[in-house]
Amino acid sequence: MQPDAAPSRSPLAKATAARHQRDWSQKKPQAPRNMSPMAARVVGLDTRSPRSSSVSPKPTRLVSSRQRWAHSVCSKSELEAALQDDSITAIETDLIWSTTQSAVVHAHPPQTESDLPFDAFMDAVTTSPQRKHIKLDFKSQDVVQPVVWGLEKYYARALQARGQHVWLNADVLIGPGSSSCNFDADAFVQSCMRHRAFSSLSLGWTVDVGLGHSYSVDHVAALRSLLQRHKLLGDPRLAISANLRMALRNSEPLRRLLDECRGELLLWTGVGEPPVSEQLVERARRVFPADRLALDVSSTTAGDAMAQEVALSIYRAWRRAGDLVKRTTSTTSTPDADADDDFYDRARRRPTCCR
């Protein structure tokens, strides 16, 4: 059933209406044996070999490093605003599986529900009069396969025709201040490399921004080993994703990695992380090769940034004090120690900016 025309409809509504006009009448074959039931359901999509598979990837440098980003666009209203903003050139969004909605949706953990499903997002960005590049930040391994299949099958040609670039991003290795990772790094790379005609890989580390750590030689060595295993050191479309503050605290390991590979460095600031000053951004451009540096950061004036840094320093001191007291009480068997666990657990909890 075709929706009635409505001149006042938003770009997102128009895009969704356009999608419903497609011919979905063809019978869908069985999913490949190596595809999970959830992936087949979402790709329900249709799991035949993608129609756009004849389009060969072009190993060219990524789009301009001086993008202006809309961060964590995870709702219809945020997407509409980003599409209508002429100053925005690229949209960053998060992807997660919603068990309550039984669909891949755009949400940033701990949120797992959203009014913006994956297909509605892609319909909007590939039909909007304003061309925007896209960074898809995967928050769990189980949504990778259905998303890359959907991109290749339904959106690759439109993305290429419009000159829209897609970064497939995930924090696939354990990084500074972190002790866990939701991804199998090799499996993520293999899934994404099957569908490279329209996209590039963006690989990074899980981090805890709140404690003031930096990227070590070992962190970078683990990524280099991953790139070497998958023959990605010579791929100019590769993006190495790192937190801007952490990268500048110890830039040497990342600079050495850039000397060994042809990819770019994508520096980010996370959701809930204080904005960085323009001076810090300019410092990043001096420290790293400017022609190979992409920035997905929230920046602000020097005065505001200084106030934010003071707040971040206070938070770090509070976190470290909580860790110290927790370790001290764990060595003392007192009735009150267990009762205080909840307080100290809260003191050690990750901030929202940690990915």
UniProtKB/TrEMBL annotation:
InterPro entries on file: Menorin_dom
Source species: Pelagomonas calceolata
Domain of life: Eukaryota
Bias-annotated ranges (Low complexity): 50-61
Signal peptide bounds: none
Annotated family: Belongs to the menorin family.
Menorin-like domain segment(s): 68-299
Protein name per UniProt: Menorin-like domain-containing protein
